[in-house]
Amino acid sequence: MKLLSIASTALCLLTSVSAAAAPTFSTILPNSAQIKAAAATASTNSFKNAKYVSGAAFDRIVYIFLENTDYSKAIGDSHLKKLTKEGILLTNYFSLTHTSEPNYMASAGGSYFGLGDDNFVRLPQNVATVVDLLESKNITWAEYEEDMPYTGYQGYQYLNQKTGANDYVRKHNPFIFYDSVALNPYRSANIKNLTEFNADLAAEALPQWIFITPNMTDDGHDSNIATAGAWSYNFLTPLLSNSYFTKNTLVVLTFDENETYSDQNQVYAVLLGDIPSDLKGTKDNTFYDHYSLIASVQANWGLPMLGRGDCGANVFDLIAQNTGYTNQNVDTTNLYNNQSAPGYFSDSSLPIPSPSTCDNPAGGISEPISAAPTTWNVRKEYPNQW
């Protein structure tokens, strides 16, 4: 099995974590025998008999992230143009920072915690995520990661076994950074390969909250916008004509970040799915960012806050109109979002801040949810990540 070597410091990271916080996997890059053994016993959850929880505007929300493309290039792609005609183009949608990993992290937990690179990092179990919010109301959820070797895989990456191409990468898996998900056997059984999406679709057993990550070629990272656009069109077109999938479903197709770091970090985003026919081919000029992905879920199902970047974030207007949430007018003239603010991963003197209450909670609940009653000063338990 061909597996990429990474810096020795990264390879030693997990062994440097104290026993109290020891992970359930042995190495960052397991060998072929370890992967084969783990795949044979990996548990995968099914939602076939799960009861749906109705939302204010939608009963299912699907997020798909593509990679590293400037807004001007994305809107010029021929395949994305076709998809845009079937939905609502968000003309004022921004990424949060650079590089990729902090944007995925923030979309799941409401913060990138000072991260400004794609290193192998972990967040302790007392840091809540969207999973905690969804499970507070028994809303089913899953990730579908293309070419991940098995359900719940926690390794740094996985290469194509025939070509050696960069297929699955951990940095594009939003929940795997959070120990509250990755080290929880039930929750990690919801982090699936994209082939499981096809099986769940055929069985009419899809969960209500879905995050989809294409592989490093299909998302445009190791290819180009034409490849990413074609993959998106070919993947979504049959789904949008599938009544089981589309009914009461919102699909958000966007990019993790733009390509030109010196420019404003505006990215393409379009709302698809069960969109009113009179709104197809229209534009929404409201300001949104990746925190809106969390706030919109909170508003749709009346969920608690994470008490981080989700607090006060704008909600997709399609949902806000059904919940009475008032979005803010944001002047983006000087908004660049092209560098991470200091935080836990960039400065060893900074702890993870405790969640805060919110004066304008999207879900109507001002108190943040808690993941675990443990201390916020976790340097001793999680050393050597800086």
UniProtKB/TrEMBL annotation:
Superkingdom, taxonomy of origin: Eukaryota
InterPro entries in the record: Alkaline_phosphatase_core_sf (IPR017850), Phosphoesterase (IPR007312)
Record-given protein name: Acid phosphatase
Keywords, comma-separated and alphabetical: Hydrolase, Signal
Originating species: Sugiyamaella lignohabitans
Signal peptide feature range: 1-19
MF annotations from Gene Ontology: hydrolase activity, acting on ester bonds
GO biological process, alphabetically ordered: phospholipid catabolic process
